[in-house]
Amino acid sequence: MSRVRVVEVGPRDGLQNEPTAVATAVKLELIARLAAAGLRWIEPTAFVSPRWVPQMADHAELLAALEQTPGMHYPVLVPNLQGLERALEAGAREIAVFTAASESFTRRNINCGIDESLARFAPVIERAGARDIPVRGYVSCALGCPYEGAIAPTAVARVAERLAALGCAEISLGDTIGTGTPGQARAMVETVAERVPMARLAAHFHDTYGQALANLHAVIEAGVRTVDASVAGLGGCPYARGASGNVATEEVVYMLHGLGFDTGVDLPALVETARWIGERLGRPPSRLARALAPAD
Amino acid sequence: MSRVRVVEVGPRDGLQNEPTAVATAVKLELIARLAAAGLRWIEPTAFVSPRWVPQMADHAELLAALEQTPGMHYPVLVPNLQGLERALEAGAREIAVFTAASESFTRRNINCGIDESLARFAPVIERAGARDIPVRGYVSCALGCPYEGAIAPTAVARVAERLAALGCAEISLGDTIGTGTPGQARAMVETVAERVPMARLAAHFHDTYGQALANLHAVIEAGVRTVDASVAGLGGCPYARGASGNVATEEVVYMLHGLGFDTGVDLPALVETARWIGERLGRPPSRLARALAPAD
Predict the structure, then answer these.
(1) Of A81, A273, B6, B67, which is the most exposed, with the fewest CB atoms less than 10 Å away?
(2) B210: which chain A residues are within 8 Å (Cβ-Cβ)?
(3) In this predicted structure, what is the pLDDT of residue A294?
(4) Residue-wise pLDDT tens digits, B252-276
(5) A295 lies in some domain
(6) What ipTM is given for this predicted complex?
(7) Does some domain include residue A198?
């Protein structure tokens, strides 16, 4: 059976946009439940300034408290060398860096252009590489930008290729605003795969327009075998009006199992985790979690 | 540009499960708005007993009040000859009949087996044919049954073939409980297409497990060019626990336009209609309607 690797981004990409503070203990329990459900790649936090992302202010405490057992991968987002140093001090063994295929988005989101963001990441990736720390590179706005609209697949490919050349082991292509449709998603991924091998690409699609699962199916048909998702659909992009969150991990896993892929995930345990965190945060359950709810 | 025909089933399949009565005037306004948004196939009501489906008790009044302008198609669901006669009296020009690929579901839903349901429809379809009334045939449980679980694609094909042989111009294949995934949906449709030409098939998928758009994309890739959907995702199947409704027409149309298909639908007008009926019924908006909501 063919395998699809699911990268759970709920604790970071999901929770970072939650309006109310989530206790470190709740985050740790969420991560423990996700690991118990069979997820092996979980992005736990970001070493960004608490001034910009207060929800991630407990990053050092959280990472230090995580038991990094063999086989578990906990990449943490770092924006710069300072973030890398703090992450390493707290025990990070994998990291992720973040840029975009849109010049305008990069400027508004991380306050510099694409070139400058790559220049900033070069020493981060190099230092990580020197310590055998794998680096994941995010390319957001891969299917559209809230400021520029359409983004050419070749623009995405250029940024992905440069991240790969800098040393990123994996490139995660993000439909940050969720406007993509399946044909576009497939064309984008195939264009990127001309520069970076398909095996090193991940799809990170948001469900803001309801298209995420259809888009994921399209890129899986194209050969993508790594998919980012967020339990219970936690999160969303603060720049996309009415953003309704990331694609729900449980709906992705259900589809993947139906397609005959092995994910290593125990779906009922994942659905139970989705229900648990949704209740904690007062979020509505995903469609799948509602459908599989125990009878009253 | 290739065309996909969208059959709007919200006023019938959507509203029939609404717990509170919807006024005939609201239904008529909904249909008028859908037509103004460019939908040309709208299922307005069902000529079933008000004892079983109270929400459709106004079928004769509703149909009589509909202005059936040229180019508009308003197929009404009829369960038997009596229903057909009443529909014709009220001015029906197109009808639909309903059976399932699952013996258990058919027994519980329409109180007879598949063979008996087909025998019951034979004179209905024949009489309709004699009056040049096109008949649409629904085959529900095409991707799974709440009582029997998995349904073999060949079982779906057999029922579809028999409906076609009886005179149904079009066969709508329903994932009534919404459990299907894209590979399964495509395989089912391709199996049915060995018996009934693809051009006569429609996909009617529910979004209960979040899979509907991915499944629709898969069958569109396989050649299906008619898709059923329900504005605002109205409806759902009362037999599927936690059913979260039909697939939202606006999310389907958005995907189809993104794939380069012409639907004839004005998406902003459709989204506005979805918002309007959602507010009327106190339903949450679809993800797409939320994403496209006007700024506060």
Answers:
(1) B67
(2) 213, 248, 251, 254, 286-288
(3) 73
(4) 999 999 999 999 999 999 999 999 9
(5) no
(6) 0.92
(7) yes
Contact B290 A213 (CB under 8 A): no
**A31 burial type by CB count under 10 A (0-12 exposed, 13-18 middle, 19+ buried):** buried
CATH of the domain at A226: 3.20.20.70
Contact between residue B229 and residue B247 where contact means Cβ atoms under 8 Å apart: yes
Average pLDDT over residues A163-179: 96
The fraction of chain B above a pLDDT of 90, given in percent, is 83
User: A239-253 pLDDT, tens per residue?
Assistant: 555 556 799 999 999
Closest partner CB to A242 (pick from B244, B255, B293): B293
As a whole number of angstroms, the distance between CA B214 and CA B20 comes to 31
Q: The pTM is what?
A: 0.94
Tell me whether residues A217 and B216 touch, CB distance under 8 A.
no
Residue of A nearest to B240 (CA): A291
Rg (CA), chain B: 17
In a domain, A296, yes or no: no
Backbone CA torsion sign across B108, B113, B114, B120 = negative
Considering only CB atoms, B182 lies closest to which of A217, A243, A293, namely A217
Mean pLDDT of chain B: 93
Give catalytic residue positions of A.
237
* A13 exposure class (CB count in 10 Å sphere: 0-12, 13-18, 19+): buried
- What range defines the domain where residue A68 resides? 5-289
How near does any CA of chain B get to the CA of A260, in Å? 9
Query: Which chain B residues have any C-beta within 8 angstroms of a chain A C-beta?
Result: 178, 180-184, 207-211, 213-214, 216-218, 240-244, 248, 251, 254-255, 257-260, 284, 286-288, 290-293, 295
Residue A114 has pLDDT above 90, yes or no: yes
Number of domains in chain B: 1
Instruction: Give the separation between CA B132 and CA A116, rounded to whole angstroms.
Output: 69
Of A218, A259, A291, Cβ closest to residue B178:
A291
